[in-house]
Target: Transcriptional regulator, MarR family
Amino acid sequence: MILHGHNVNQLARSFTKKLNEKISPLGLYSSQWGIVLYLHKKKQCTQIELCKYLGVEAPTITRTLVRMEEMGIVIRTEGKDKRERRIELTEKAYDMFPSWYEAATSIEIEAIKNISEEELENFNKTLEKMMKNLN
Model:
């Protein structure tokens, strides 16, 4: 019996371990990298958006964002009302982004060597379908 979810989970663990090995010397961890990547693309978002995107609970995001704010990577400001918090990257984060991105990209390059474009395309389509089924 093949447990596809287990295999995906093991792959994610391997990616996370390798990513932490590469980016922690640059002052960032994989849990923070997901936030940085999302904010780099969106420029600004709410904590609720981050929770939905990352699939984690609000207290977890809050703790991570507090740490990132202390590190000078994000700025959190009040949104439309006092319950809403808007998040954006700092200049320091934008300055560091190329180094973090290069580290993350190097892991992906390592992971996909000897895999054809067609195999990757099929893999990505399959992952998208699996995520859609679960959401």
DSSP finds six helices and three strands in the chain. The longest strand covers residues 74-78. The two ends are 24 Å apart (CA to CA).
